[in-house]
Write a structure and sequence with these properties.
Layout lengths: L17 E7 L14 H12 L4 E6 L2 H14 L6 E5 L7 H4 L2 E4 L5 E4 L5 H4 L9 H9 L3 E2 L2 E3 L5 E3 L8 E2 L4 E5 H4 L13 H16 L3 E5 L16 E5 L2 E6 L8 H13 L9 E6 L5 E2 L2 E2 L8 E3 L2 E6 L4 H12 L4 E6 L10 H4 L1 E4 L1
Parallel strand pairs: 1-2, 2-3, 5-6, 10-11, 13-14, 18-19
Antiparallel strand pairs: 1-20, 4-5, 7-8, 9-10, 12-13, 15-16, 17-18
Helix pairs in contact: 1-2
Length: 359
């Protein structure tokens, strides 16, 4: 079975130069029940900033949706010349998880890894979202790989993976969580054996298809996370040897213990040269709740674009601390806060809705 590793492909870091960002225009009011009205305007603001620095590919369900979105984007001041619409219907808009994960080799050739998407092993309506990587590969006539492993049963198993469950430094190291990929709750890849066997299988598939030599396993994600432990809400690479990780000093908050344990794990981790990583602590906002439900509000769900970092903000005193800390990690980029109190009612924010395409 040919893997991308045989051709020296590797998943680049998010801060490597982009050709574009891929998003899907919001259309399913059920994703923001009772609060959908402001969401397209939040997207328009995101696209306004992104279109100043790179192309933006936008998935819409049909021509009418494209016209509505274009009207909003024009009024918001987006650079329409850098927007590219595709009429590919989606179930939801979280392209970090359903979109393609691009890989690149040293000669600059780009390919797509097309992982199976099953809506976080939680929802039934995912079949349109699962088609997105295939659409992108056909659009570019780009090689695509569908990662498989041979399960203990002896049968090939197409691997389920969401982009929000992993983060890489672009140099062979990957962050993920046990809660998301090894738990029996919302189990993405049943049938791969016990927890240790599943861990081995996944580390091998990361090696074979994303060019990963070392996987750092954190324990749990943040409170309110619908995905059951995505790493992009808690811990992110901000440099080849620098990790930004969320902490919650309030011992009464349900995030306190899991985030403290993750901090301990990244402090104990060693890079491929056997040296420690530089660790930067990032605060959490005060709990964001709506209709009595705790939402996965986190500054770690930022998105790195060309010369730009977009950071979710929550009308919270910690907003400015988080922006300053993230700005110190990216001194050469503009760091811009995007108001995300409405957006996070959909149980995701900026990183969840975007997928980078490497230059």
């Amino acid at each position: 079975m040919t893997t991308t590793r045989d051709r020296n492909y590797r998943m680049p870091a998010e801060w490597a130069p982009h050709a574009a960002t891929w998003i899907a225009w919001p259309h399913n009011a059920e994703d923001w029940p009772g609060k959908f009205q402001p969401i397209p305007w939040v997207y328009a603001e995101i696209v306004r900033h992104l279109s100043a620095v790179e192309d933006v590919h936008i998935l819409v369900n049909d021509l009418a949706a494209e016209r509505r979105a274009t009207g909003l984007l024009q009024r918001a001041g987006a650079n329409l010349a850098r927007l590219h619409f595709h009429h590919w219907p989606t179930d939801r808009v979280w392209l970090r998880d359903s979109g393609p994960i691009f890989i690149k080799n040293p000669s600059g050739e780009i390919a797509i890894t097309n992982w199976k998407f099953n809506a976080w092993a939680k929802y039934d309506n995912w079949h349109r979202d699962d088609q997105i990587p295939q659409h992108v590969a056909q659009h570019y006539d780009m090689p695509q790989f569908k990662p498989e492993i041979i399960a203990p049963s002896g049968k090939p198993h197409r691997v389920v993976l969401e982009g929000g469950s992993i983060d890489t430094n672009g140099a062979g190291v990957l962050l993920t969580t046990e809660e998301c990929l090894l738990s029996e709750v919302q189990q993405r890849n049943p049938g791969l054996g016990d927890e240790e066997e599943t861990r081995r299988h996944l580390e091998q598939v990361f090696h074979d298809y994303l060019g990963i030599d070392q996987t750092i396993w954190l324990h749990r994600g943040c409170a309110g996370d619908d995905t059951h432990g995505h790493v992009d809400d808690i811990t992110r690479f901000v440099g080849e040897n620098k990790i930004l990780t969320a902490v919650e000093p309030n011992t009464r908050d349900e995030n306190h213990l899991p985030l403290a344990e993750n901090l301990d794990r990244v402090r104990s981790a060693r890079n491929l040269s056997g040296k420690p990583f530089e660790i930067v602590e990032l605060p959490m906002p005060s709990p964001v709740t709506f209709e009595g439900q705790r939402l996965p509000a986190s500054y770690a769900n930022f998105y790195i674009a060309n010369n730009l970092v977009l950071v979710p903000t929550f009308n919270d005193p910690n907003d400015r601390h988080a922006l300053n800390i993230i700005a110190s990690c990216f001194p050469d980029r503009d760091v811009v806060g995007i108001h995300a109190v409405d957006l996070v009612w959909g149980l995701g924010t900026l990183h969840c809705l975007s997928q980078q395409e490497p230059a």
